[in-house]
Amino acid sequence: MSYSIIPTELLESGVSYHRPTPTAPLRVSMDSSAMEVMTDLKQVAASTIGPESSVEEANTKMKLRGVRMLLVVDVDDTILGLITATDVLGEKPMQYLNAHGGQHKDVKVKNIMTPQSQIEVLLIRDVSQASVGDVVETLKKVGHQ
Prior knowledge:
Number of strands: 4
Strand order of the largest sheet: 1-2-3-4
Oligomer: single chain
Number of helices: 6
Radius of gyration: 22 Å
Order of helices and strands: EHEEHHHEHH
Largest sheet: 4 strands, mixed
Shape: extended
Structural class: alpha+beta
């Protein structure tokens, strides 16, 4: 196939650029559809980290991505667990060091993550029929934020 050359021009002096018109933040109520506040991981790449990474690396990655949780995955992207900002910044690293010794830089994600076998999930078929209030009540019941 043959492709065409697109003509170029020099940028004129005084040219600005367009900024998108800010939109009002989505107003969410307890009666809103739960799907309005969920992140669709088919549309947005999940934030992940490997189990051998340090907790310091996990904290940095969360800050850079603007998230408070990372999925812990192996080389095949199989979920091994998850790690949260609370895990990294809370007592878990010190508890691990008290039990095993070492320095903070030695604590690996795998040492303090919540393993896959302990991760509670909501099924999409249930969430798609739920309200934000339903999700909030569910999280309260199971003791999660």
